[in-house]
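Q: I'm building a small set of examples for a reading group on sequence design. Run inverse folding on the following structure and report the sequence directly after it, with nothing in between.
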């Protein structure tokens, strides 16, 4: 099986956890794409949910495929968020947020009662850190963040 087929299988399994009435967080990236696609199929089959997204692209997919959408300003919590990992080591430590939506992904995860991280064998690594990890700096914490980064070297 190729990486896309593995991602699709893992994503479809994660989507089985979604129940009627839930507010669902939609992750970002190639693995989350497959989850969003399956959620849309389930919505067409009668699943009643509303979704919030961790990126503009995921929001666009949700709207395009008919998933009822809600902004984070309209909700108090998220029942379940599904997203993919960038890397996972043998102790199940992982890197999440290696792309451009890292802050939004973290906000969704923090607001969620449950967080499912989709992992297929293509994400398994012996040691975390195979790629440069971006850091997002928000204006209200710029100095604190830069100081902490300096401490890290």
């Amino acid at each position: 099986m190729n990486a896309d087929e593995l991602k699709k299988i893992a994503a479809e399994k994660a989507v089985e956890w979604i129940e009627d009435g839930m507010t669902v967080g939609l992750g970002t990236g190639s693995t989350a794409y497959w989850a969003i696609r399956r959620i849309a199929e389930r919505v067409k089959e009668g699943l009643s949910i509303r979704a919030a997204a961790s990126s503009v692209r995921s929001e666009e997919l949700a709207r395009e495929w008919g998933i009822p959408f809600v902004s984070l300003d309209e909700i108090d919590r998220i029942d379940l968020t599904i997203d993919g990992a960038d890397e996972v080591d043998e102790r199940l430590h992982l890197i999440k947020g290696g792309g451009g939506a890292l802050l939004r992904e973290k906000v969704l995860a923090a607001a969620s009662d449950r967080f499912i991280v989709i992992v297929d064998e293509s994400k398994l690594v012996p040691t975390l850190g195979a790629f440069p990890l971006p850091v997002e700096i928000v204006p209200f914490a710029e100095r604190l963040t830069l100081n902490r980064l300096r401490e890290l070297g």
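The first strand starts at residue 23 and ends at 26.
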